[in-house]
Amino acid sequence: MRTMCELCTLVAGKKVPYFTPRNDWELLFLSTDNYKGPPSGFVDYIDDQFATSIDLKRQPHEKLMETARKILDEVVEPTARKILDEVVEPTGLKPELPDDPQVFVRPIPDSDYSICLFLGNAESRDYCLDFVRTASGEPVDLPFTFDLFCIPDPNALASTGGPIVSMRPLQCAFGIPRDEISPGTEKFLLRDGAHCVLQRPGHRDVRFTVPILRRQPRLPMQHVDAHILELPTYVD
Predict the structure, then answer these.
(1) How confident is the model at residue 129 (pLDDT cuts 50, 70, 90)?
(2) Fewest CB within 10 angstroms: 29, 140, 200, 205, which?
(3) What pTM does this model have?
(4) Which domain holds residue 148?
């Protein structure tokens, strides 16, 4: 787990490494903004965004700085600091420690790429998958033409199987078009224990099963005011 401040600092540092946030509002803003202009124009850009966010442009010119400082100190900064102090467990943030035991890299046969599985959110039992160059470990988007599916457990009874689901990048679930995903950040969200098939034209299918997170021992069932009928959990 991390604080929002740690998370936003990490994200902002990757997006605009040439700029150091001057206050908590800027740190929060940078973590979600996608500035595409030149570094030389960034300060004017973020100042303009702040002015717009607090409706500052409607103020008379002589009161701009006085009003901005007052709103920043009394309203914006306390709210931003409260958000940044929250402890969160983000989904999709790849660990940066080398040899992390919860990162699994497996080469894809007949290619220069590997799948990389890493823990997304332990509470919701999620893993994330992206593709990396086998030689360097560098994340890449759309390294080749492929389809990724989650399929029912091949060893389960037909009656207990589920649907075949075509997977799309996590960013697409938030309405981000695939061609607008930041380079090297495309990833897929998978449940632990999921059975997956990677299909590529002209190649054999690649199958893998997402690792299952160990659970804490279940607590004994609480007493309920009811008659309990005992039935076997498994039958031959």
Answers:
(1) very high
(2) 205
(3) 0.63
(4) 103-209
Give the pLDDT confidence of 70-85 residue by residue, as tens digits: 666 666 777 777 877 8
Report which secondary-structure segment, H or E, holds 151.
Answer: strand 147-151
Here the tokens at position 142 are 């759309």
* DSSP β-bridge partners for residue 106: 115
Terminal-to-terminal C-alpha distance of the chain? 43
* Contact (CB, 8 A) for 48 and 28: no
pLDDT at 220: 60
Q: 156 in a domain, yes or no?
A: yes
Average per-residue pLDDT for the chain? 80
Residue 116's DSSP bridge partners are: 105, 130
Return the structure tokens found at 226: 């009811």
Integer CA distances (angstroms), 170 to 58, 70, 85, 179, in order: 39, 39, 26, 13
3-state secondary structure of 134: coil
Residues 6+ apart with CB under 8 A from 172: 178
The count of structural domains within the chain is 2
